Amino acid sequence: MQNSARLLIGFVFAALVIGGFFTISGGELPVVEQVSNPDASVLASGGDKLAQLALVVVVASGAIFSIGIALAVSAWFLNRQIVKAALEEPKPVNLPQLTSPQAALQQSGPAISMVQKNIFPIVVTIGLLAVMAFLILVFSGNL
User: Fold this and answer.
1) Both 53 and 78 in a single domain?
2) What range does the domain containing 108 cover?
3) How far is CA 128 from its chain centroid?
4) For the chain, how far is it from start to end, CA to CA, in angstroms?
5) Which residues contact 116 (CB under 8 A, 6 or more apart)?
6) Domain assignment of residue 3, yes or no
7) The whole model's pTM is what?
């Protein structure tokens, strides 16, 4: 599978190089000419158009390779962490035994109790913001 992919990539690259040399050398394809300006034609090209195409190909290839390298490094790092965790001795998790939701809220600290006390204004504010965003989208014509 890898050899056929390499062969295909090599063939496409060779075809692009041969086509570029054919275009630069002035070889004309037997077609009907719609425009005489080479900058407006899709069949005729000058050195600038080929340089721009080469630049686009190099930038796109660089982006693809850099994304591939980033994915390979992140997969290696995650695999390393998994192997490292598999070699460690399992640690027991100590979960507190709670008898009721009120006991859980009391143990979770002051932040939860503050949210619990102000839940109605929080929900009303979020609802008003959602309605305002919807109305803005409707009246601006984006929805």
Assistant:
1) yes
2) 101-140
3) 33
4) 48
5) 105
6) yes
7) 0.35
Give the DSSP letter string of 117-137: HTHHHHHHHHHHHHHHHHHHH
In which residue ranges of the chain is pLDDT below 50?
A: none
50 and 84 in a single domain? The answer is yes
d(CA 63, CA 14): 21
For 100, the token pair is 């009721």
Give the chain's domain count: 3
**Domain-embedded: residue 7:** yes
Is residue 106 domain-shared with residue 81, that is, in the same domain? no
Indicate whether 34 belongs to any domain.
Answer: no
Retrieve residue 61's tokens: 């290839």
35 in Cβ contact with 41 (< 8 Å): yes
**Is 35 in a helix, a strand, or coil?**
coil
In the chain, what percentage of residues exceed pLDDT 90? 13
SS3 97: coil
